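Appendix B: complex inputs.
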Amino acid sequence: MEKLVVVDGNHAAALGALLCRPDVVAAYPITPQTPLVEHFTQYIADGALDCAILEPESEHSAMSILEGASLAGGRTFTATSSQGLALMYEPYFRASTMRLPIVMDIVNREMISPQTIWGGPQDSLSVRDAGWIQIYVEDNQEILDMNVQAFKIAEHKDVLLPVNICFDGFYLSHMTEGVLVCEQEKVDAFLPKYLPEHVKLDPERPMAVDPLTPGAYLQYYRELHMQAMDNAKKVIQQVNDEFAQLFGRSYGGLVDTYRLEDADYVLITMGSLTGTARVAVDYARQKGVKVGILKLRSIRPFPKELVQQYLKGRKAAGVVDRNVSFGWHCGITYLEVLSAMGGALNMPLLPFIGGLGGEDLTIELLAKAIDYIVAAGKGRYNTPQQAIWLVKGEEE
Amino acid sequence: MRAAEMKTIKMSATDKMLAYADMVAPGITSCEGCNVELTMRTVLKVLGPNTIVAIPPGCMGGVQTVGWEDRMGTKIPVFFPLLDNTASMLGGIKKYYEHIGRHVNVVAFAGDGASVDAGFQALSGAAERGDNIIYICYDNEGYMNTGFQRSGSTTKGSWTSTTPVGAAHKGKKTHRKDAPMIMAMHDIPYVATASPAYIPDLIAKVEKAMQVRDGMAYIHVYNACSTGWGYQPCKSIDICRRSVQTRFYPLYEVEHGKFKLSLDIKQPKPVKDFLNQLKKFRHLSESDILEIQELVDRRWNRLLGLCQI
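Resulting structure:
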């Protein structure tokens, strides 16, 4: 039977990673990720797992150590946030292009300036084109479960790409919830040992990793990498379904939905704000507004086909972003949805921005977003050129 | 035959170099008279086939030691780390092999830019963390592969392409950092300096580094660069020898904190005899040379002091 524990998001992530028996872990502390590392290293100190821990002097080295360990053939795990992710950008890009199935949790935090330590996925979304799979989760159970699924996705022979499990700093990392911990034997059956064949540094089988590579080869590698991303769409869904069968919990795969089936209006969300959006949708439904949620889970690969499918025939939709795209005056996931729809977009699609720097996106603010979407669907509000800001004190 | 097996047999350095297999492919594209290639082939012969080697961007990466297209430049596992993460990547490799209980020599062959500048944070971190890697730095006083730019290891007064000589400014304005001494101050198990002009000494030091199991072994090799420094390729070894004979580059080793001169230069030649061989110092005034001589004397005396502890 699964054990029920009451833990915060960081602790749930550590438990999830521990279940996967990584060989080598290296992580540098940064708020709000620090407790994740502390929990993990405490478990190792207590003898819960024979895992090699390295204490790097920076995030740049944390990722570099994992690349070395992964090239040697090990299963590896780390976690970071914000400035730490920015510092490791150089080896971050390289982990995916060397096709190393590293798993790294990103405890989402704003990027400075101004000085901040609070939540927002600006950090990971800003590096969404560095070739990693990025999955965004909503609550602590999903954190634990996705850490287990992440290795299975990353190490799949049709994928072989590193995976980020991204969750909101403080809202999840420091929020306590009841979480069921998967049984170790079941995880062991679900997740076989990692046995790399595509790239390995081993004197028994000498290999040159990354000789000087002319453009024609590089183009070929990029093509394969993009193909692996396409394959990942299928694999993420398969792994979700297999996990659901074994552990009884499904997250939908690339996207999830809430009260969407008969909805005229769609609120598109990502991460922990989805929980608040569910309540806002329930209230709107009580008033007779047929609104539902499309929750984006995988941002890379982006579920273009599913977004098109779920938005088809609706009257209006809106995307809530807790991040910005400078130069577009809207959020990043809005742009992603807009691109996915392309010529198929035949309804108003509204961009919302709010909840930056850990600001609370309240039920009232999301209700306001729903009002805008409904008004746009009824032709009373045109799709704006700039994002609509969801700001506390401006609910009406 | 493996280097480790050879150890039990009394052999001269020449015999060893004849007996050990070359781990580098023939035909890499180093400059004429490159003593870094000689150094690399020598140390990899000693290290032998049970070795994984990292060659970060720099001269030895540029001459295709890692490989080109789908061809390898070595006969052992080899890879390009980033310029600034060699020690960290090696630390990860070594940790995994320790984790599965297998001994492998995990080795860096890195230039001074990748070691004492951009890669220094990772190097210092790995040293402090006790990663059991062998880190060999080939120091040719700058970014010679990309056209002779200055590094933190460039001697004061040097002409480089980023510290040019003109009417207003005359070469690099500050002294070179004493990288092997900084590494020694990390109190790692083994630190040594070496020179391609003293190959038996270099071989012995690599053999010692291979015995270390309780932390990092660091070897700093001072390699003259004919294209970057300006001298005839045939004089490579002579220049390297002069750097040692003038006490400019002392040969010593530090085993678990114990400093020992490998070669005592009792009657040094003036540093001028080294500097005046090189085009990059041609513009130096007498007072400029005197200042370098003073630094050489100071560092030598400091080293002697440490040897007496």
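The domain at 3-247 of chain A is CATH 3.40.50.970 (Rossmann fold).
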